[in-house]
């Protein structure tokens, strides 16, 4: 049957056929995605067992424990989902259906994996994973689909919270616009401040959770506007109240309210994804991105001479050269840069003509000489584009550096403040003209920098900076005019100060942005995040550079497989123990989970899988594992101070054992090993000692859990002492506890019941 490959691919990825069948289940946030990762991975492992011919008792036990663990975790997960449904009636029906489906699928998986007690799991008298191979695939798909649906529905609640918070802010802003007395304004602004704080927290969490870096940058820009405009709104409104007949004060205030509304609207557009095409309008193609795409097409001719037409290539170059006109037409581009850009543009056209000529000939006749000529033409074209990219980068960044240096003294702003206080309208008018000129220079600088920013998030930051200068410039002018008309007004003076500070702050931000753009150009940006504690070459160990990375070969993997599987079974046991703890933030639990996660990575290494690619990766991970164990031992010592004398010796004895084992593991991991045989022996020793630590951890966690439960029950075995973490949390609650409990429902609470499902698997 062809079901096996299909089922494997369908369940292995949350975005492929297994989960992608429901068009409404697009995953846009990291929290939803990361919650699904362990479930997808372990369900795939479970399904892969159904076709394996060898089934030892250990394998059957492992399969059954997987099924039970899945069912148990799904049951808890569904309980939280149902609680969310009860609190959100508009989603109750959809959420309830998804929860029922998830519970049914979890129970089906548990039934199909109930094989450990059977003498003949293949017997037709009992339907199992081995006799009903398509049944487990269907159940797995239903489980993943329904769990995803619950998570996405919970995510919609988060979106609803942000929209509700935005609506509160807008409603209060409308009240602020209409107030006519200082007393009323102060009362409403106090409420407005609290609502803005709530909105900032919600949108900050959302920004960090977004998967799309472009949307994340847009969200950051909008939130920056709201943050700065809040203070502007305060002083502009106060100025307008003090001088109600002043037209410039009204213009100043209206500008702030308008900008805040636009920023609030953009946040909602990003959160709801209501304008997916708006991004294209906001960020037209830059020279950098155009050159990158053009070069990719040109270099693709090496592999395929027929995948695009010469007209397409010519059009792409025309678009790039049209954008270079932003530089050559700019009054702020130096004569030297302008000449070089024009020369390189002309050369690019010539190189493309030569490339097209050879390319057309090669399509008709693939001779060795023609293919060599094509390679030369490709190299020359790409080289020309690289030089063009370098030239526009130099033009933009040198202009930016000069302008930022020239304007660091803020002379125009200082002059506006002085002449405003003097009430010198003529001088204010003179300096507002100079500020307008400065604004045009800075706006042009932002436009040119966007072309060479190198990444989409930095492009968006350049657009945000351009918009800030465009808007803040006229607002400073209206604030200065207001002060000149009312030179003795302290509120008008304070208002001008606030807008000038926003301008200075944006200039400071531009210096940082310029540095980031140069870092991207010089290749100092864009490194991937390092998983857990994996070493970067040369960073963690002075000897690391001298060591050649080594991988285990197939024979070595086979030798160490049994030890690795034992380690994996222990990680499952540890995870089961930590799941029992109500307080998942407890230090003991967190250290245990961290050690289990690292041990699981080491197990995957024994199979040639996972993120530990070389033996050096493994040794470094073993060191960090041992360090985490030492930290756990320290927490155990602190916990022992709270227990009765009868229980203390046992706890301290186990803690000392842990310290000794971790020290031994660190010594082994740091020891030098030269040659293949010695390296494998060291790998074997590290895995063995890690297994021993995990075995001890499996004994320690139940002991601590038992003592902690005694503490909660008020048992006399615990002597009076400063309250343990769970007590601190409990005593910190108030009469508002039920509300706080409801607030915790959402992705985070659901996540806790899925991310800890590190299930058993067996070769």
Give an overview in words.
The protein has 763 residues and is mostly helical. Among the domains are: 30-116 and 130-156, Alpha-catenin/vinculin-like (Four Helix Bundle (Hemerythrin (Met), subunit A)); 161-272, Alpha-catenin/vinculin-like (Four Helix Bundle (Hemerythrin (Met), subunit A), Up-down Bundle); 287-400, Four Helix Bundle (Hemerythrin (Met), subunit A) (Up-down Bundle), CATH 1.20.120; 554-714, Up-down Bundle (Four Helix Bundle (Hemerythrin (Met), subunit A)). It contains 26 helices and no strands. It has helices at residues 3-12, 17-20, 30-48, 57-87, 92-112, 133-178, 182-209, 213-242, 247-272, 278-282, 287-299, 310-328, 335-364, 368-406, 411-422, 425-451, 456-485, 490-521, 554-579, 587-606, 615-640, 648-670, 676-713, 725-731, 737-743, 747-755. The radius of gyration is 33 Å and the shape is globular.
